[in-house]
Structures are given as structure tokens and as C-alpha cells.
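pasting for ref. prot 1 ->
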Amino acid sequence: MGLESLANRMTSTAAQQTRILVQAAAQVCEEKKGVDTRILELDQIDAALSDFFLVTSATNDRQAIAISDEIEYRLKHEFGVMPNSVEGRRQGDWILLDYVDFVVHVFLAERRAFYDIERLRKSARPITPAEFDDELKAALAAKTRAVRSKTTPAKSAVKAAQAKKKQAVSKTTVAKTAGKKAKPKSR
């Protein structure tokens, strides 16, 4: 396996892990009654900033804090991931959780309308959590099928050699057992 191939596999695995984390955070938003939850898949130009923005609205500052606290708690306990930084928790009108590969924005509805992140990131592809979940499931299913269908010739040769070895050992055991003569007992 070449170095480039290994780097691609590692990048693919990291991207899938990021997608799983984003989906878990979006699920928390839905459970805590976040309003109009959207995932913005940022384009390559913005990818240096982050891969995804998760944006949701809360009806009051206590709900915004509850959503952000639950996201932080769940990602820490289920995945062992902590945010790189947290901003705005004290005020509660715009809370930002920076997980480097994705950023969670929990807004009060009027703040979200004022800053309009979706408009600022026009090149980003907006996805609902349900669409995002479907894409993630499809990608994981495709990867599973690809792994299951891969039977490299080297692996097949090793399995065949192991089977031959077992067969030879069992033939040898049978031959030794058959070749032994019963010794008369001496008195």
C-alpha cells in the first residue's frame, strides 16, 4: 500500500468520524427542540476554516445554553471529544462550540436572523439533519460493501495454503494411526 493510498484512507476515516460527530450534535439539537436546524457543508475554499457548520435556533437563552451543554456532554461521553473552544455561553444569545472540523452555532432566533450565517456562506451546501443522516448511512453502507467484496489474491492464497496444511496434517495423523501395529501385552 502506497503512502498516498494510506493518507487517502486516513482522510476518509477522519471525514466519516467528523460526519458522525456532526450527526450526533444535530440529533441533540432536535431532541432539545432546536428550531430550523441546518448543517452547512462548507466548500473547499472555506474548508480551511472548518468542514461543517451546524446552525440551530433556540427560543430563549436558557434553551440555547441547554442545547450547547448537551452537545458538549454527549460528544464528550460518547466519543471522547471536547470542543477546542466555547464562546458566548454566559450571554446565551449566540453560543459557538468549535470542534475544529465542525463548528456548532446555537442562536436565539433574532440573533440568527441578524447575522444570517447561511447567507454569508452562500457557497456552502445546506443540508437538513435527515438528509445528512441518509448521506452518512449510504456512505457507510458503500464502504461496508466495498470491504466485504475485497478478497485480495494474497488473502485467498494464504487461506488456501492454510487449508492444504490442515489437510496434510490430518492425512499424516491418519497414516500414523493406521500404520501402528497393536503390540501384544507381555506378561
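and prot 2 ->
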Amino acid sequence: MQGRVTSASANILQHKLEQVFGENHKIVILDMRQVNYLSSGGIRVLLMFYKEAKKAGGSFQVQDPSENVINVLGMTNLNEMLLR
């Protein structure tokens, strides 16, 4: 993932993650080092797949987030849940 995750591009992220989860991967790690903006729509997608992974007995985490992503996840108290 790279660039901005806006409400519009969150749908693209959701579609890509649906494909990955459709392949029955139990552990999914999303590299966000090149993401410089994360909207509430992007947060919604991350939470949705975190919950889906947990429900399936797997895990979903964000790896190498940019400083902006760290700040957003920290402000929403999701950093401990999502960051690897």
C-alpha cells in the first residue's frame, strides 16, 4: 500500500484484502511504510479485516507504518491492536 488511503481509495484496499482473505491466508501483514495519509474509511477497513482475521483464528497486522499512520492509529487507540 502506498500514498493516501482516503474514503475513495479505502474501497480499493478493501477489495484487495478481500482477495487475500479469500485465499484463506491465516496471517496477513499489511506494509504501510509508504502510506502518508489514513482516513476514517481506511481505519474502518483495517478494523473490519482485523476482526475477520480474529474470527477465523488468524491475525491481521500493520507492519512498518509511516509516522502519519502511527499518529492516526495512536489517536484512535488502535496502535496496540494493529501495529506489528
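The beta strands are 2-5, 27-31, 34-38, 59-63.
The chain has a mean pLDDT of 95.
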